[in-house]
Structure formats: structure tokens, C-alpha cells
Amino acid sequence: MSLRVTEEVMRRSLHFCSRRFPCYLGRLPATTSITDASVSSQQLARIWRTGQSQTCLPTSLIGSARFYSHDSRHSEDFEEKEPAEIQVAATMQGQRPSSFIDRLALCSSPSDVLDLTCQYAPTARQNSSCLTQMWATTKMMSDEQARYELRLMFEHPAFEKLLQQSMKSVRFMTGEDMAYSVLYMVKLGVPQRSRVVQTFLRASQEKLNDLDEKGLSVLATCLDQIEEGTPNVAALKKAMGLLVESRLPEIKNVVLLQTMMRVVGKDAPLNLKRKLEGKALSMTDQFSLPNTLYMISTMATMGFYSKPLLDVCSNKIKEKLNEIPFSRQYKLLLSCKQLLYRDLDLLTDMSDYAASMIDIWSNKQLVIFLSAFESLHFCPTSFMGAFAEKVIANPEPLTLRDLLCVLKVYSSLNFDLQHQRQQFLDGLTGALVSYLPRMSGFELLKTVYHLCLLCHFPPAPLEQLLQSSTLEQLKTTVPKYRRNCERMFRMVDASLRLDRPQLPQHLTVPPFVLGSPTPSSSADKLWLLQSLRSLVGDQADTVLQEMVVLENSYLIDGVITKPLTRQPSVSEASEAECRSPAESSQRIAVICTPSPFCYGTSHLRGPLAAMTRHLNSLGYDCVSVTEHKLHAMSEEKRMEFLSRQLFPERHGSDAQPETVQLGA
Predict the structure, then answer these.
(1) Which one of 127, 156, 400, 458 has the largest count of C-beta atoms within 10 Å of its C-beta?
(2) Do 479 and 527 fall into the same domain?
């Protein structure tokens, strides 16, 4: 076996050992030559003998490097390399690399690349290739291994030299090499305000006109990962926007247009986004199904809502919904959430399709699909019904995370289970009981809160939640979660008092975990209160109370007390003399919230549905309205709507509430 083959085998063996035992083995000093096979052999033997006694790297070195996780958007930028064992075998068979690039392809860590640069004088393009290979090898590692390798990279004496050489040779690089170089420097953790990164950003701005669409896309991806306020970033983004605008008339390809849309990103001026919208609308006849899906995610990336373009895409998707795999459908729902876009027909079709896949998709897929619908405030009736049947048949495969998510979705959307209700809730509760010993206090509180919204009160989780040890644990919750805990405890308390569940023992929520409802300034809804005051006017028999707190749990925007509209019979009139004023009058609670209804319906969502249930038990009638739609009305229309809701007797027997219209 030749000396060079022996060197390569020993070098690979040392590298394998360092990656196998990263906490115990230090890398060889930079001054050690790998041409001395006997020295490498002795060091290798010593490492194997004393590996368990070596100390870990100092904490100061751990903090010297920042690890960036791999961005899947660039997974296509690199071809998958052969395993190191195959490469070493090829070397032993005489296929010795004959050039720098060939040897670079054999490197399996950033330190390997840096060792190679010590033996060569890389050119400008080779410097870019080195940075590319360093990131390509790092992104294939586990998180722990990558952190260790990046520490070694920052310690390596050749790393700073490579960056210096790259900075000096940047003016000789092509635009694409320059864009990839700065992207991978940022991904490898080179400080964004460092001289080398800033030099590359300035050089990119100078050579911006030379960049093709791919180079612009890579540069845009890099800028997305750089913190706001970093020097040269704002100017470069503005210049890229001007370049895209000038090239817009030349674009004839949908994919190229989408690339340009992603390049300008969220910071593009509105007039440029409008021009891109017009260009896209002129090319809709070229949209394939993948183009259509990618267009919606592109608009989400831009943060640009274009209803005409979204409607075109939605119609094309509905036609071929069964051809779209699960991952793309899920991403579509997430993009719709980002854009606050909801197409009732599209969501209904997706619900029906998901129901047909109930026995094909995994539980994890079904649960995250449910969660995506819930984030859009849309109740997928057919899907939720089919999933409930699956849970009733066999709830055991659901994990704790699955169960918590399912409870959240069904309680939030206030889904009407009809005859399946008790079986479904009993199935979920039975599966939850086995997880109770492993649940944290916060998970337990969320579980009981969602069960209370569903008006279901299993004793086991309630008793465990109200134990003194659990309550003390939750009392010390960090401040940013404390208000949320208090809100959920108030719902549990109100449910125990007002729903009056049949429990083996009497359970109460202690006052020290309840807090109080978040106060709301009357100025926030002055427009609503003024309308209510005008409606009540000078009617002596009608009283308006503003911002009323009921049961230390619910903050009501306004309570209107008026005489009962139905004329009592003679017998009822004699009984009415013995009643209190509250019993002989009607109390209407006006509740104005941002999103009280499931999308497209007048069906109340979970928390508001529970509030309405509790207020009804206290003798209040509830009128719920959508805040932003009521606020958007003219004063005249708002008064007419509220009058129909609160005083239907003034409009005759045919007056119908317009809740459906406002909830849609």
C-alpha cells in the first residue's frame, strides 16, 4: 500500500474518531503534518487509550460559534455525496483525486475543507466552493455534531485566512458565486456585522445588475436571514426591488415571475406589488397546478393580499383537489392563514376530501389538519364528524399531544356532536386518564379548560388540577403565561358554579388563582356605547349599564334592562306583583368581540358559546356581534342593526336578526 493511501486512511480514521466521541477528543494541532504516518498512528493509538479521560471543550469556545439549522429551501443546491467509507475505498483502489475540486468533494467536515486550503492557494471561485462545501457537509449532520464541528471550524487557524482571502477576491467572483458565498457565511454563523459579510453585501450591490434570476433569489434568501437594521441590507433590498421592476416587462415565465416576487419580499413598496399582481393576473392561463399552489405560498411570503389573484388560484385548486398531496394541502391552509384569506367553497371541499382520507392519513396528519382548520376559525363539519367516529372506534393510538390538540379544536369550534357527543367525550377522557401522571400543571389546566368549554366534567382531571400542589405550581407561573392561566381558571370556576356538574365531591377553585378580568377602557368601544346610548335615549323604562363585570369572569360591553315585551295573562299579572324587578324585566347582554362566529356561519365559537350558556343561566339574553364589521358600518346602518337585535318589537314580528350576515 502506498504511503499516500496510508496517509488518507489514517486521516479518515482520526476524523471518524473525533466525530464518534466529540465530547472527549480534541482535534490534532494545526501544525501536525498528516504526511508523517508514524506520528498519526501513535496519536490515534493514544486517543483510543485515553479518550475517556479527556476533558470537554471549554464553555468559552462553545459560545464562539452560532449554529444555524438547514434551510430546506436550498436542499436542491447540493447533490448528495457518497459516504466517506466509499470515498476512502475509491482512494485505496488508486482513484486518487487529481485536483483541488476533486479533493474538496471528498471533504466531510468544515475542518477537512480548511485543512485542504492549507495545502493549496484557492482561486476566487474555489474560495466560494470551499464555503459551499463547508455548509454542505454541516447541514447533513445532527445538531450536536454540527455544533461541535462549527466550534472546530472557528478555532481552526485557516478559517480566518479563508475569510480574508474571500474578502480580497470578492471583486473577481461572479455574481452567483458572490451570492452563494455570503449566504453560506451567514448560515455558518459568521457575524452579520463583520467586515467580511459587509464587504460581500456592498460588492453584491455593485454587481447587482450582473445577477441573473437564480443569483437574485439566493441573495434574497440571504437577506431574509439577516437581522433587521444590519448595515447595507435596507439599501440592497431597495436596489433589488428597482431591478425587479425594470425587468418585469421581460418576464414571460410563471416560475420566473414567482422568483421575482419572492426576491422583492415583504419590504417591497405597494406600487411594485401591484405591478407584480397585474403581471401575474395577465399570465393566469399559464398556471399549472404546482404554479397555482406556489403562487399562494409566494403571496404569503410577500405578505401581499390580492383577492382577484387568490380567487383565480382557489378556483383552479378546487378543480384538482384530489391530485394535491397532504403536505401541499396543509401548506395551502397555512398560507391562507398568513394571508387571512378564506374561501368557503374551497375550505368545504378540503374538509370533504379530508373526511374521505380518514382511514388513509395517519393520526398525526389528521390532527394537524384539524388544527389548521381551527386556526382559520372554520368548522370542517364533515371532517370533524368522520374523525369523531374514528376516535369513538379506537381512541388508544392518540398521543397526549394529539389529545390536547383535538380537545382544543372541538372546544374552540364548538362542534355539535349530536348523538355522538357522550361517546366521543368519554373516549377522549378515557385516553387522557392514562396520561394524567405525566402531565404538567399547565397541560392539565388546558385540558380541564377545554373540557369545561364542552360542558364535560370528568372527575379525575378536575380533582388532580384542584390539588393544592398543582395550584401552587401554577400560581408561580412565569408572568407572560399568568394572565392566560387566570383566564382559564375563571372559566373552570364559572363552569363549576353555573353548570353545576354532578361530581363525587364538591370542588371549588380557590380565589388566589383567579385574578380578575382584564379591564377594558370604554374609549376603545366609544362608537358602540354611543350607539347604545342613542337607542336607549330618554326611555324611562330602559336602562343601559356600560362595561359590566359578571361573576368575576365576564366583561360585558353593555347590559340593557327593559320591561318584558310579552303581555302577561291575568294569573301571571297577579304573580308578577310578588316578583322582584329583575324577574319582571328582560336583561340583554351586548357582547362585541373580534371573531365570535365560526367562519361562514352564525355558530358561536367555544369561549363565547360557554359565556352565553352561563349568562343564560343567570337570566340574561345575549346578543353577539362581530366588532370589525359593526364598526365598519355607517352610523345609520349600525343603529338600525342594533335596534333590530335589541328591540325587535319596534320592527314588527317579521324582524329577523342579521347575525348570520355579520358572522360570515
Answers:
(1) 127
(2) no
10 Å CB burial of residue 453 (0-12, 13-18, 19+) is buried
Q: Could you give the dihedral angle defined by the CA atoms of residues 219, 224, 226 and 232, in that order, rounded to the nearest 10 degrees? A: 60
Residue 597's DSSP bridge partners are: 604
Q: Is the pLDDT of residue 358 over 70?
A: yes
Amino acid at 475: K
CA–CA dist 61, 55 (Å, integer): 13
β-strands 543-550, 554-563 pairing: antiparallel
Q: How many CB atoms lie within 10 A of CB 297?
A: 18
Per the structure, the complete domain to which residue 595 belongs is given by 522-663
Quickly state the pLDDT bin for 553 (edges 50, 70, 90). Answer: confident
Q: pLDDT digit string (tens) for 307-323? A: 999 999 999 999 999 99
Closest CA to 127 of 81, 163, 74, 175: 163
What mean pLDDT is reported for the chain? 81
Please state the domain count of the chain: 5
CB-based contact 197:167 (threshold 8 Å): no
Task: Provide the strand spans (E) within 42-121.
Answer: none
Residue whose C-alpha cell reads 467586515 in the numeric block? 195
- Say if residue 346 is in the same domain as residue 445: yes
- List the alpha helices (DSSP H) in 320-458: 326-339, 344-356, 363-375, 381-393, 400-412, 421-433, 441-453
Its sign, for the CA torsion 427, 430, 434, 436, is: positive
Burial classification of residue 650, based on how many CB atoms lie within 10 Å of its CB (0-12 exposed, 13-18 middle, 19 or more buried): exposed
pLDDT tens, residue by residue, 128-166 = 999 999 999 999 999 999 999 999 999 999 999 999 999
Half-sphere exposure of 577 (CA within 13 A, CB side): 5
Left, alpha or beta for 551 (phi > 0: left; psi -120 to 50: alpha)?
left
Distance CA 454, CA 420 (A): 13
| pLDDT band with cut points at 50, 70 and 90 for residue 520 | low
9: exposed, middle or buried (C-beta count within 10 Å: 0-12, 13-18, 19+)?
middle
Closest Cα to residue 486, out of 442, 437, 549, 427?
Answer: 442
Strand duo 620-626 + 554-563: pairing: unpaired
Supply the pTM of this predicted model. Answer: 0.75
Name the residue with higher pLDDT: 628 or 153.
Answer: 153
Residue 265: pLDDT over 90: no
- Do 635 and 534 lie in a common domain? yes
Are 66 and 204 part of one and the same domain? yes
CA-CA distance, 525 to 546, in Å (whole number)? Answer: 10
User: Is 15 in contact with 149 (CB distance < 8 Å)?
Assistant: no
